Amino acid sequence: MRCFFYMMMGLDLSTFNHRDIPYSAELNIQQALSLKPIDLWLCEIGHRGYVYDSDLKELTTWHDFVSMDLLMKSLDSYNRQKKVSSYDIATRQQVGKKLKGMFTKGRKKKLIIGERLTDAFMAKIADTSKEQKVGYELGSLEEFRTVLIENLNLPADYFDED
Question: For the chain, how big is the Rg over CA atoms in Å?
């Protein structure tokens, strides 16, 4: 025990900086595991390859430009599915601010804004907008994943298939 004490007393700690965090792959993995719910939702979109989880083929394919309405429905569905606490649920403004920092905002007509039941056979169909709606240019799926890796400091292989 004395030997260890004398060894520790002989160390020069004058240049030690406790705020200088060594960055490593393990740190990136740990940071990815402790993301906020909104960031986890974006990562889930990147993993599954489409924005809104639905039975409809139109909604389970990747779209380069996505309406804010569809994004909010997707986030609401994610929050209910993952039982996100009301304290952690992001508002529309918070989601817009987050997305605007990563993607280009724009307006387009005939965007998919959700799904609805038809009157005739009670079948689900994609609901599209008649007027211009606010949305975000997410780019291709690979571009979307690259933006998330850069902005959320995820490991480079975060979206690789296991």
Answer: 22
